[in-house]
């Protein structure tokens, strides 16, 4: 292996080392020190990704790609991981949280570059297992329910994925994702099983049941792993798979149907939610649905649109969950006057919700424009209609929460101002920048996504 | 001569396996399982398949049993838990037994027939080259997966004990 090839593995190695270091420090060091060490190592990994942005891809390493798509995916996963690190808590003195976030991030980085079935499944499972452990850390009953649901359904989905990979291998004689596009019975069964397994990880209907429980019962950091990190990494993996469409028609049809169902169901059920966390849970199902529809429709814009949408959604969900974490399980009425009590939190939450709706000047607007343009360019009118209905419904509940956060408090001040740590402030500030700047000046983001799209 | 050793080792493995699945204590079952796996490795060695024997020792008697030991260490295995599980899985042995019986049928049918010809030899060198060459990163990813699982077990254990670790 040459030096260039080793350097291309640097981000993954640094993130893995961050996880191991955080695990070793967990029993002895205070949370601040663990978090600082983990963040430093992960920031170094992010810097390495950024420094290599223009570098030629390293001589192809068999199982992990080093192309622009892998780098963009890794950068997004690391950014999400760093943001989540800011609101990881210790639970009853247990301080494994940062280790789990770093491990999940390493899974995400691997997933972004996975060009082989083995790397794909390992990346997905590392992320899922870390998410399960993080969910189970608080000793509350809702956390237990969310954790066991995720664990059991995650196990079923892992088995489904493995069986799908086995069928795809039997059909093609290769574990490389690029070879999985063949036709025939084995490839079709393999494609269907792979799709079912990935739909669970990507929280598409009807495999979404674990998501609302996770968002309402688990620590916000675990929800953010599912909503931002795992979504970005799985989205990139789906993009690579969509290039070959394992199983042919089965793949596109299934992905489109699951995506449309998720977009409609997520948005419609989200209307009835009064808790911020549960609303975000159902809305993340809807956003997965939009992404799946872009991937299913294909067409000239699909790759670019997927990446722009992911880059627009990830900072919004991290910011919203960071605020939710600072507030505790908060309902819509309790949000009133947040911007007075804690201007940064209220402003960031309002902006994040604005970005999820898709209104300018937030970057979510660019994401929605790309969503509709990609579906129209692919002439997928049914999917376009489903996306439009979903997005229209979403206006209602996002704005309800957004207005509550920005509105003046009713009567006297009741709730105390939530305390924001330095890390949380930094996360919110970076997230606001990542929402507003590309919203006002999208060219760099579009250039990155255009270069990375396969 | 060596085939006689193979038959003895195989019989020993069978006996140890039969004892393992009928033991009450999970620790005894584990030790018997270890015995069965080592006896199987001995059978491989006697049948002039040292590579398969070494893999059997490393992966099954080594890694797999280590995982079982780890599970036994971290879960509650008192008399009360044993009674509860016995009630829970009263008839559960029937399914694995049926699967094992089904798997035996094709093997017995082929007993008298000729072998299908030797498969391509998979040498230790080839495997090593894969594991420390192209697949090295995947092997490392596997270790990260195990670490995530291990932390998960610690978290679960802490929930069960209801106290600090």
TrEMBL record, chain A:
<keyword id="KW-0830">Ubiquinone</keyword>
<dbReference type="GO" id="GO:0008137">
    <property type="term" value="F:NADH dehydrogenase (ubiquinone) activity"/>
</dbReference>
<dbReference type="GO" id="GO:0005886">
    <property type="term" value="C:plasma membrane"/>
</dbReference>
<feature type="transmembrane region" description="Helical">
    <location>
        <begin position="43"/>
        <end position="64"/>
    </location>
</feature>
<feature type="transmembrane region" description="Helical">
    <location>
        <begin position="108"/>
        <end position="136"/>
    </location>
</feature>
<feature type="transmembrane region" description="Helical">
    <location>
        <begin position="369"/>
        <end position="399"/>
    </location>
</feature>
<keyword id="KW-1133">Transmembrane helix</keyword>
<feature type="transmembrane region" description="Helical">
    <location>
        <begin position="148"/>
        <end position="170"/>
    </location>
</feature>
<keyword id="KW-0520">NAD</keyword>
<feature type="transmembrane region" description="Helical">
    <location>
        <begin position="248"/>
        <end position="268"/>
    </location>
</feature>
<keyword id="KW-1003">Cell membrane</keyword>
<feature type="transmembrane region" description="Helical">
    <location>
        <begin position="214"/>
        <end position="242"/>
    </location>
</feature>
<dbReference type="InterPro" id="IPR001750">
    <property type="entry name" value="ND/Mrp_TM"/>
</dbReference>
<keyword id="KW-0812">Transmembrane</keyword>
<keyword id="KW-1278">Translocase</keyword>
<feature type="transmembrane region" description="Helical">
    <location>
        <begin position="419"/>
        <end position="441"/>
    </location>
</feature>
<feature type="transmembrane region" description="Helical">
    <location>
        <begin position="280"/>
        <end position="301"/>
    </location>
</feature>
<comment type="function">
    <text>NDH-1 shuttles electrons from NADH, via FMN and iron-sulfur (Fe-S) centers, to quinones in the respiratory chain. The immediate electron acceptor for the enzyme in this species is believed to be ubiquinone. Couples the redox reaction to proton translocation (for every two electrons transferred, four hydrogen ions are translocated across the cytoplasmic membrane), and thus conserves the redox energy in a proton gradient.</text>
</comment>
<dbReference type="GO" id="GO:0048038">
    <property type="term" value="F:quinone binding"/>
</dbReference>
<dbReference type="Pfam" id="PF00361">
    <property type="entry name" value="Proton_antipo_M"/>
</dbReference>
<comment type="similarity">
    <text>Belongs to the complex I subunit 2 family.</text>
</comment>
<feature type="transmembrane region" description="Helical">
    <location>
        <begin position="343"/>
        <end position="363"/>
    </location>
</feature>
From TrEMBL, chain B:
<comment type="function">
    <text>NDH-1 shuttles electrons from NADH, via FMN and iron-sulfur (Fe-S) centers, to quinones in the respiratory chain. Couples the redox reaction to proton translocation (for every two electrons transferred, four hydrogen ions are translocated across the cytoplasmic membrane), and thus conserves the redox energy in a proton gradient.</text>
</comment>
<keyword id="KW-0874">Quinone</keyword>
<keyword id="KW-0472">Membrane</keyword>
<dbReference type="GO" id="GO:0005886">
    <property type="term" value="C:plasma membrane"/>
</dbReference>
<keyword id="KW-0520">NAD</keyword>
<feature type="transmembrane region" description="Helical">
    <location>
        <begin position="87"/>
        <end position="109"/>
    </location>
</feature>
<keyword id="KW-1133">Transmembrane helix</keyword>
<dbReference type="InterPro" id="IPR001457">
    <property type="entry name" value="NADH_UbQ/plastoQ_OxRdtase_su6"/>
</dbReference>
<dbReference type="GO" id="GO:0008137">
    <property type="term" value="F:NADH dehydrogenase (ubiquinone) activity"/>
</dbReference>
<protein>
    <recommendedName>
        <fullName>NADH-quinone oxidoreductase subunit J</fullName>
        <ecNumber>7.1.1.-</ecNumber>
    </recommendedName>
</protein>
<dbReference type="InterPro" id="IPR042106">
    <property type="entry name" value="Nuo/plastoQ_OxRdtase_6_NuoJ"/>
</dbReference>
<keyword id="KW-0812">Transmembrane</keyword>
<dbReference type="Pfam" id="PF00499">
    <property type="entry name" value="Oxidored_q3"/>
</dbReference>
<comment type="similarity">
    <text>Belongs to the complex I subunit 6 family.</text>
</comment>
<feature type="transmembrane region" description="Helical">
    <location>
        <begin position="135"/>
        <end position="156"/>
    </location>
</feature>
<feature type="transmembrane region" description="Helical">
    <location>
        <begin position="57"/>
        <end position="75"/>
    </location>
</feature>
<dbReference type="GO" id="GO:0048038">
    <property type="term" value="F:quinone binding"/>
</dbReference>
<feature type="transmembrane region" description="Helical">
    <location>
        <begin position="29"/>
        <end position="51"/>
    </location>
</feature>
<keyword id="KW-1003">Cell membrane</keyword>
<feature type="transmembrane region" description="Helical">
    <location>
        <begin position="6"/>
        <end position="22"/>
    </location>
</feature>
